[in-house]
Amino acid sequence: MSKAVLSFILSEMRLKLSEMDVERLYREIIAYFGLIGATNECKALEEAWIDPYNRRKIEDFIMAWLRRRRKVEKALVGVA
After folding, report:
1. Is the pLDDT of residue 77 over 90?
2. 48 CB-near residues (< 8 Å, 6+ apart)
3. What CA–CA distances, in Å, run from 16 to 19, 34, 36?
4. Alpha-carbon distances of 59 from 9, 11, 54, 63, rounded to whole Å
5. pTM of the model
6. By the 8 A CB rule, do 30 and 45 touch?
């Protein structure tokens, strides 16, 4: 499963994530946008990124994902 398209999207958004986070985000974004099982998931994501409406939806999803991740990290730090 190639994450090259997601890496490109993240670089355009000026975001840097660990490989593990890129993998998690990739799986979630593919599932959320109904691309699981597509003949070529990366190509489908790339084509979605080109469309301005879908691009905004992808950006919104990524930002919401990052907010959720930070919230979880803060909660875990509070527990430790």
Report:
1. no
2. 33, 35, 54, 55, 58
3. 9, 25, 24
4. 9, 12, 9, 6
5. 0.84
6. yes
